[in-house]
Structures are given as C-alpha cells and as structure tokens.
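Changelog-adjacent note: as of this version, every example in the card shows the full chain rather than a window. The one below runs 373 residues end to end.
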Amino acid sequence: MSTFISEFLLGGSGKRVAIKDSIDIAGHATQSGSRAFARALPALRNAEVVDAILAAGWQIVGKTNMHELAFGVTGINDWTGTPINPQAPDRVPGGSSSGSAAAVAAGLADIAIGSDTGGSVRVPAACCGIAGLKPTYGRVSRVGAHPAESSLDCVGPFAADMNDLIAAMQVICPGFQAQGLPSNNASVGFLDVACDAHLQACLGAAADRAGWRRTGVQLSEFEAAFVAGLTVINFENWAAFGHLTGQGLIGADVELRLLAASRTSAAELAQAEQVRTRFSQQVDAALEQFEVLLLPTMPSLPPTLVEARSSSKAVAGMTPLVRPFNLSGHPALTVPVEIDCGGLKVGLQIVGRKGQDEVVCAFGAQLQQSMVG
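Full-length structure tokens:
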C-alpha cells in the first residue's frame, strides 16, 4: 500500500495521526519520498509538531507518502508508489502531501499532518474530498520539517471533519482558541477567478446555504501573485535540493523542475518580493471589508492519472488558486462540498486575516454544518 512510507504505532491511545515523510520522527528516517534519501539515518529528535501530538496522548500511526521532495502537485511518485485517491481512484490524489490526504480520506487516520508550500495541503485535501488547512505563515512550528528554510511553507492538518481539524490546531498551534460559529448573514467576499463555471456556481450556492452574504471581489494582483509564488519556490527549492540533480537520484519530473528552477535570477526574486508585498496588502485591504474571502480550491476537477502523466497543462492547472496565499502568508482552509459531478466532493477555499486561523476554521465548521442532512 503506497499511502504510507512506513507504518508503526507511537504514543498514546487518542486520535490516530499520520505524519508526512518530510517531517522528522525520532528513530525513523526522513526520506521526503525520494531515492536520494533512501539511506538517510533515522532522525535524532522529533519535529516540534510531533512532540505536541505525542504530548496530547494521540497515537502516530506512520509516515505518509508524498510527491518527491514536496516539489509537485499530482502526488504521482514512481519510486514510493502513488497513493490511491479514495474518492476517485482514477484521479490523482494531489500533492505534495498525497499520502496524508489519502490516509484520512480512507479512514486510516483521524488526522494527518502535511506541509503546504504552494498548495500542498489544500490541493490533496480537495482532490481526496476532505478538509485541509494552511495556517498563517509562521504560526505552526516548522522545526523538524524539510526543507528547513522556506518563506512559503506551512505545516498544517488534514481531517474529514472540521471538529477534528480544529482539535488538531489546538494541539499543534500554541494559543489556538476555538471559536463559536460566525453570526448569520456574515459578510464574505467571493473572489472572481478563472474557474469552471459550473463548479464556481455550485460553490457559490454552498456559501449561500451556509447563510453568508457574499459579494463578488476582484484582486488585481492575484495572477501576478501566482507567478511570483512560483518564482520564490523555485529559488528556494534550488537552494535546498539543487545538489541532488545530475546523479540519477530523483524522478524525471522533479529533476526537470529543479533544473528549470536553477535559472531563477536574483532580479526575478526581487521582483517577486515586490509582488508579495503588494498582494499581501491587497488581501489585507479586502479583509477589512469582509470577514473572510472565498474561492474554489481548484479551478476544475482533479485530472485523471492518465491526464496528469500525459499533459503538463493539466498539472499546471491545479494550483493557480492556492499558491497566491502561500506568497501572502494568509491562513487558507479547504472544505469539501458535494456537487453533482459524479459524486465527487470539491474544495471551497476560505481565506482569513493573518493570525485569525480560528475565524477561518469557524467558517469552515459552519459550512460543513450547513451541509449535514
């Protein structure tokens, strides 16, 4: 089974938690889904989030598979195997935290921990029909997560149920205080983004059923923020993993992405940082008008495995709506919504003010509650 890299039991008898293979667990090698780290020595200490989970009396059930080096969005991994997407076995599980999402969706764990640098929690959560949160940048500890340095990456939880996701945040996020549901008729901004029209309409209807008062919003820097986010991740991932190229140690897709990333210039990075500042300010300004912002997590249904292997366009189309919020650092949650597309659940993304992860989660809980029965 390719959902887990390794299965073991560690800790108490509380909630079952799966941990992404880019996060250290003492006594177990951190391989980041890559042959390049096949001979890695066991980690000497736990990541801080792992210590928090064990201190809560929860039980770690294993390390989950991932897109190699967390540098991909499909979850396809020809070295470790590709996790099956429990809600749509013919479609990609999403990446890079593929095994974490699949483990929760399959009922193999109550909660899973992943990391999100350009959508790597939210995309697999949306693909597999569960909830996933990218917290405010810096709010959840990255100590013991790989790569060690990132201005984009956030460690965050997956769960099928918002109550479990909120419980996870109370454990891994110091100071997280769960909030009651938002008031009726809460004012929300629904972003005008390039998206499948039917999917956009279904998600808008879901927001209406939750009792929210939605207003259309445009962010002029949104597309530039996607490009800038890609520039930053390319620059930082080349610095972290460039030394692994040219040795036959990594898969062809990741090797090609890293070699392309090597061409990112300091001038391009400086320009991307200017976009980061402008876009972050633009999102902040929108959130002065609205309690949260809403948008689809993905612009279309997840590609099939066949499409993902044969079409770079299908893969590139998975992250345009998530990556901008890695650049800006705002908390972003995806919650599954059932639509009339072959029984698939798709993700509605909820974005909030920096540091107000509790509010984002409360909106997610209200959305989920509105869909019960």
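Structural remarks: The radius of gyration is 19 Å.
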